[in-house]
């Protein structure tokens, strides 16, 4: 397995005579949850049957190969596809007849980042094409905007509450002070009255 990985990564694009597998782009950049189309081209011979066509496209990360797309003797073999790509890969069968391998990978994940190898083996040649895909994570600013106003609204609610409570509190304090002043004056009046000596005849 390790030998095969090294062979696929190290081998140049052209391996067998004039038979070549090329990529339309050497590096792809995309965001997660988006779709992307990876494309390779290979040398075709009109007089040859598609039954001699064998294709294996894989994702290479570290020491692991995951099967993205497999064609054996001209027939697509979906059973060979790794679970991580299940239901996410669409191939263009018309393009295949023209010597183009077009694979749409949908609902991209950051784990889809890596080196994509596509080996094509026919009775008239063998070659490998490779490209890099980088999938970046997306941070949704809309989520942040919906969350951030909540503390502000609470603060504004507290502000409204305080603007109502403070005048009421001030009014209560004023009333209490007036009551105290009134009680004090009444006591003073009572003491003056008690100090007045009655006139005796």
Q: What does this molecule look like?
A:
- The protein contains four helices and ten strands, in the order αβββββββαβββαα.
- It has 201 residues and is an alpha+beta fold.
- The protein has two domains: 2-139, Immunoglobulin-like; 164-195.
- It is rod-shaped, with a radius of gyration of 41 Å.
- The relative contact order is 0.17.
Q: What low-confidence regions span 5 or more consecutive residues with pLDDT below 50?
A: 2-16
Taking the sheet with the most strands, its summary is: 6 strands, mixed
In the CATH hierarchy, the architecture of the largest domain is Sandwich
- Using the CA coordinates, give the radius of gyration: 41 Å
How many domain units? 2
Spatial order of the strands in the main sheet? 2-10-9-4-5-6
Topology pattern, helix = H, strand = E: HEEEEEEEHEEEHH
What is the CATH top level name of the largest domain? Mainly Beta
Q: Look at the helices and sheets and give the structural class.
A: alpha+beta
Number of helices: 4
For the terminal residues, how far apart are their CA atoms?
Answer: 135 Å
Strand content: 25-35%
Quick recap of the structure?
With 201 residues, the protein is of the alpha+beta class. The protein is 34% helix and 32% strand.
Any key phrases for this structure?
201 residues, six-stranded mixed sheet
Strand and helix layout:
Layout: H1 2-10, E1 21-23, E2 27-31, E3 36-42, E4 54-61, E5 64-72, E6 75-76, E7 89-91, H2 93-97, E8 100-105, E9 114-122, E10 125-136, H3 141-147, H4 149-195
């Amino acid at each position: 397995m390790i030998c095969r990985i090294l062979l696929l990564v190290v081998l140049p694009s052209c391996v067998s005579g004039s038979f070549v597998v090329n990529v339309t782009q050497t590096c792809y950049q995309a965001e997660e949850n988006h779709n992307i189309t990876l494309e390779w081209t290979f040398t075709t011979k009109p007089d040859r049957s598609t039954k001699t066509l064998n294709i294996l496209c894989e994702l290479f990360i570290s020491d692991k190969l995951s099967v993205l797309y497999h064609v054996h003797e001209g027939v697509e073999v979906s059973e060979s596809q790794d679970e991580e790509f299940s239901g996410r890969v669409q191939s263009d069968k018309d393009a295949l007849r023209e010597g183009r391998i077009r694979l749409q990978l949908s609902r991209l994940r950051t784990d889809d980042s890596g080196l994509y190898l596509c080996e094509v083996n026919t009775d008239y040649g063998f070659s490998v094409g490779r490209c890099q895909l980088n999938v970046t994570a997306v941070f949704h600013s809309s989520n942040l905007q919906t969350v951030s106003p909540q503390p502000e609204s609470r603060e504004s609610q507290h502000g409204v509450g305080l603007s109502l409570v403070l005048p009421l509190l001030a009014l209560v304090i004023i009333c209490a002070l007036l009551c105290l002043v009134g009680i004090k004056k009444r006591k003073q009046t009572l003491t003056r009255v008690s100090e007045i000596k009655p006139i005796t005849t």
